[in-house]
Amino acid sequence: MTGKISPRDWSAQPPYLAPDYKSTLLRAPSKPLIPIPHGLMEATAPVFGHDAVGPLDHDLTRNGRVNGEPLGERIVVTGRVLDDAGRPVPETLIEIWQANAAGRYVHAADAHDAPLDPNFTGAGRVVTDGEGRYVFTTVKPGAYPWRNHANAWRPNHIHLSLFGRSFASRLVTQMYFPGDPLLALDPIFQATADAGARDRLVARFDIGVTQPEFALGYVFDIVLRGAMATPMED
Amino acid sequence: MRNSLIQTPSQTVGPFFAYGLTARQYGYKGGQIADAVIADETCPGERIVITGRVLDGAGAAIEDALIEIWQCDAAGRVAGPDTPGFRGFGRCGTGIDPERRFRFETVRPGVAAGEGGAPHLSVILFMRGLLSHAFTRIYFPEDIAALAADPVLALVPEARRETLVARRLAVPGLPAYGFDIRMQGDGETVFFDV
């Protein structure tokens, strides 16, 4: 059962220890990872169908409403989930969480003094269609200070969690916005050394996705580990 | 041969995942896809509890870790239409318990037909400060012969194997196991490149 799923491409991934991101210092494993072959558990994933997602889960501008519209710049985010051989990954559950337009999370531990928005929770879910495509609607998250270093601000970003088709393809990532001046200064974004891989984390503005009189549009494609295109000899 | 597209880099789950991933556990409104019950009372097999902490390099219990457990059922099957009461997957954050413990309820796993090796739980670990999630396993201390023959444990230096074996807890109720995860330093838990 070995060699069926493509390896984690460490040249495209951030290291565990990234000293500029100070939270890694005491949390990064210090010993090398031990490679193991893929058995049944590594090759399979829980099955989450459309029934795991409620009718408003994909629309963060509506799923947290109490008495009005969430504040901020509405955006539509769409893209495809593909494996690293370029094949679409249908029926993939994506979980989403983010700060509000002022840069504040609903989370009780968020001590930033920016305002909470009573009509925005910042959490949602969406499942990819038969072509691996997803669409969700939200507001653009604000930047916020995070005390990693003097005058540290996180770039605008949305967190995404994906299962893919296997234990091995599990991914949590963040989507960033094009042209953000904070990206060059962000130790989390910059921890991925390879510029081509880092670019995968930045969505693309697309006027064709923009909905007239409603919301700006962004495209964010996500590439997961997949079955090997060609059997690997090792 | 390498596949053609660059994999999307992993990024930290951050400290504020709870309202998105474990909303009910943390008391937020909103849904979630799973909780810390991997198998309910209707699921065949021996019911067990797994609990533990995630410790940083200074030995402090981490308050914003998220643990996922993936496993086979008692017959060695993955979750599906033939495994009622068995989700095969659970998720628990460490931010609610006063001692920063995670706690899962499940059934003792079996071994898939043809796989051999010792029964185990597969673990994915996320937290602030972890840019890529970490994979580990939880084995059971009673399975002495199977542990000695397990092909994955055989890849682990002998002195580090004990970091992958839970300890039986002497507590009333369901059979309970403790499993602390040490991120670095002395007694560092073995993490796998899966």
3D structure, described in words:
The complex is a heterodimer of chains A (234) and B (194). By secondary structure, chain A is mainly beta. Helices cover 6% and strands 24% of the residues of chain A. Chain A is globular. With 194 residues, chain B is mainly β. Chain B contains 3 helices and 10 strands, in the order H-H-E-E-E-E-E-E-H-E-E-E-E. Chain B has helices at residues 18-21, 23-26, 144-148; strands spanning 47-55, 65-70, 89-93, 101-107, 120-127, 134-139, 167-169, 176-178, 181-182, 192-193. In chain B, strand 7 and strand 8 (176-178) form a beta hairpin. Chain B is globular and about 40 Å long. The mean pLDDT of chain B is 96. At the A-B interface, strand 1, helix 1, strand 3, strand 9 and helix 3 of A face helix 1, strand 5 and strand 10 of B.
Tags for this model:
heterodimer, A: 234 residues, mainly beta, five-stranded mixed beta sheet, four-stranded antiparallel beta sheet, 12 strands, B: 194 residues
